[in-house]
Specification:
Mean pLDDT is 95; it is low at 117-121. The protein has 21 helices and 28 strands. The chain folds into three domains: 13-360, Aldolase class I (TIM Barrel), CATH 3.20.20; 388-482 and 605-645, NAD(P)-binding Rossmann-like Domain (Rossmann fold); 495-601, FAD/NAD(P)-binding domain, CATH 3.50.50.60. The protein is α/β, with parallel strands linked by helices. Strands 3-4-5-9-10-11-12-13 form an eight-stranded parallel β-barrel, surrounded by six helices. Strands 16-15-14-17-28 form a five-stranded parallel sheet, with helices on one face. It has a five-stranded parallel sheet with strand order 19-26-20-21-22, covered by helices on one side. The relative contact order is 0.09. The chain is globular and about 75 Å long.
């Protein structure tokens, strides 16, 4: 099984007597299902197993708190003295290796940026390279040489337990602003002893850790180092220094995994958002590869097989690491290997996965409803009785429902009142950084075809139509329509509703006013500004994009500040040929100039259309925007679970 279109990407690689079946690997991703005892268990095993079963060459579980005495962070324990620790780790390792993937586990210490909610730290103290006070008032204790030896030994003990549990590889985190990176970084490390100053001194403790791992775990364990190729903030090291660091540790390392940035000073560098180019950090791996002889891995917004093939073929890297891409589609590697790359569900880079963790410590993915529910028994299984299912609406929620129902063995008919499938996401193809949203609609349409769903376009669903079709189950996904406020001039030739931007973009001039500072309006404004247009955004509320998730929103606001002119607290009252006339909170009129006005004030649920269908079939379920205008995540989740609920 080796796709001839991607021979380099699909080729195996042998590292320290272990064969990786391809060059596509699952980067460290933390499981959120850590019980109160801090040990891995079956929930975590189910989470990581998805990517092993989907064909990843290696899967890395994240992350081990190597030294609880000096690090209180969000992770799990790997310690033989803790009941259940070894057993839980072995369960995860087995879940990975039984599918042919290399099982890896990430070892980390957060140093001075340890979380503070674990009571065992006590004394309002964290541990780092230097004495000081953290931004939140926490005292930073400078680790002594003796304490550094103890921390290094803790890394070694954790690696030995990992080996005992069946892991073939450990990933040592030396990047992103954590403890080992704090010693490597001239920004963080101000020591004057043998652990600070010169590169030779700054790399001393990381080398001590790597040597402790090798001594404790033996010669067969693969040691991968995850490092920031460049810290990418003022005072941090650049890629030239990154190359020297990599060279200084390569004799103790089997793989150098090149990431970027620091969680504290560059979240969007470490986790490239939709506004960044795919593979924006590959150049760091390519540069560091010039300085080392061991295999180099690259990571960062990679999900296109053609791009990944070029990276390997051109020698920029030897391995591709993916995290969010393998949440969106755990089967991505298998689909590439078997020539089904058109069936890949692409990551939207929307940060739903990371935002959900920040909100409530659970995991979700906008396009993969299995994420976070791996243990719930909600896998698609055949229904006991095949039913006739009618789906009203061909947006992403309706299509997800149709695909899932068909996979359960139901006979499914999907009706869409317009001439094409996709709903709101159809317009996203015209905004390059949102193209994956358009691709989601295309992917679901292909899946419907493959699963035998009968699609009827230009077919509105009415109560009479339902009675004529006589389905056993009806899923109502009739969506929403854009709100068009009753302003004078709203129907003028210079006004475009944001949902129709893809069809009417040729009419957009070089001076634009966007009416509405929600997520859709802001993202359209950023796109237009990137095209070189002068863009003003008018929002009645005091803040922009409150509907954006907490990971995406700060990045979006940064783009808005850099690229657009923002006017909050203004209410649009009239559109003229000169722009948008607004009123401020005192009632004073203000003209925001622009020869094109984009209307992006939100969506209104097609509730009346939906309610008319409530009693038209024996079993009826409403999903998506017709319930309440929301987002892709909710539409996909509701469609998936509605189809599972059909009996």
């Amino acid at each position: 099984m080796n796709n001839k279109n991607f021979p380099h990407l699909c080729s195996p690689i042998r590292i320290r007597n272990v064969t990786f079946r391809s060059r596509m690997c699952s980067a460290p991703m933390g499981s959120v299902d850590i019980p109160a005892d801090g040990c891995l268990g079956r929930a975590a095993a189910k989470f990581y197993e998805l990517r092993a079963r989907g064909g990843a060459a290696s899967v890395t579980a994240s992350e081990v708190i190597v030294d609880p005495a000096t690090d209180g962070t969000q992770g799990f324990f790997l310690d033989n003295s803790i009941p259940g620790s070894l057993q839980g780790a072995a369960t995860v390792a087995d879940a990975i290796t039984r599918h042919g993937a290399v099982a890896s586990i990430e070892l980390n210490h957060c140093g001075q940026y340890a979380k503070t909610y674990l009571s065992h730290l006590g004394n309002n103290m964290v541990y780092g390279p230097n004495e000081g006070v953290r931004e939140d008032g926490m005292h930073i204790h400078a680790l002594t040489a003796e304490e550094l030896g103890q921390v290094a030994a803790a890394f070694g003990r954790a690696a030995a337990v990992a080996r005992q549990a069946g892991f073939q590889m450990v990933t040592v985190h030396m990047g992103h602003g954590w403890l080992l990176n704090q010693f490597l970084s001239p920004y963080f490390n101000h020591r004057t002893d043998e652990y600070g100053g010169s590169l030779e001194n700054r790399v001393r403790f990381p080398r001590q850790v790597l040597q402790a791992i090798r001594d404790a775990a033996g010669p067969d364990l693969i040691i991968e180092v995850r490092m920031s190729g460049a810290e990418a903030f003022d005072g941090g090291y650049d890629v030239a220094e990154g190359g020297r660091i990599a060279h200084a540790i390569e004799d103790l390392t089997d793989i150098i995994h090149v990431s970027a940035g620091s969680f504290k000073y560059g979240f969007a560098v470490t986790h490239p958002p939709m506004f960044s180019e795919h593979g924006c950090n590959v150049h760091l791996a390519a540069e560091i590869k010039k300085h080392v002889s061991v295999p180099v891995a690259t990571v960062g917004a990679l999900n296109d097989p053609a791009q990944m093939e070029e990276i390997i073929a051109s020698g920029q890297a030897d391995l591709i690491m993916m995290a969010r891409a393998l949440l969106a589609d755990p089967e991505l590697p298998d689909k590439v290997m078997s020539g089904r790359e058109e069936d890949i569900t692409r990551c939207l880079r929307c940060f739903t996965c990371m935002a959900q963790r920040a909100i409530d410590q659970t995991r979700r993915c906008a396009v993969n409803p299995m994420i976070g529910r791996e243990q719930d028994g909600l896998e698609i299984v055949p229904a006991r009785h095949s039913r006739k299912v009618l789906v009203a609406g061909g947006g992403v929620g309706g299509m997800e429902a149709a695909v899932t129902a068909a996979r359960r063995g139901h006979k499914v008919v999907l009706c869409e009142k317009s001439e094409r499938l996709g709903g709101i996401v159809n317009s996203e193809w015209a905004i390059p950084f949102k193209y994956e949203m358009y691709q989601l609609g295309q992917s679901l349409a292909r899946q419907m075809e493959q699963e035998g769903v009968e699609v009827r376009l230009n077919t509105p669903v009415t109560p009479e139509y339902v009675r004529k079709e006589a389905p056993d189950a009806l899923i109502v996904a009739v969506g929403s329509n854009p709100i068009v406020p009753p302003l004078p001039g709203i129907h003028g030739e210079n006004v475009i509703v944001v949902n129709r931007y893809d069809e009417e973009r040729a009419r957009v001039t070089d001076e634009v006013v966007v009416l509405g500072g929600g997520l859709a309006g802001c993202e359209c404004a950023i796109h237009l500004a990137r095209e070189g247009k002068s863009v003003h955004v008018v929002e009645m509320r005091d803040q922009l994009a409150p509907d954006a998730n907490p990971r995406h929103r700060p990045i979006l606001l940064d783009q808005m500040a850099k690229l657009t002119h923002v006017h909050t607290g203004l209410r649009g009252v009239e559109i003229t040929g000169e722009g948008l006339v607004c009123e401020d909170k005192e009632g004073k009129r203000v003209l925001v100039p622009g020869s094109t006005v984009i209307c992006a004030v939100g969506q209104r649920a097609n509730r009346d259309e939906a309610e008319a269908l409530r009693d038209s079939a024996p079993w009826v379920r409403f999903i998506g925007d017709c319930v309440r205008p929301s987002n892709i995540t909710n539409a996909v989740y509701q469609g998936y679970h509605a189809a599972l609920d059909i009996r």
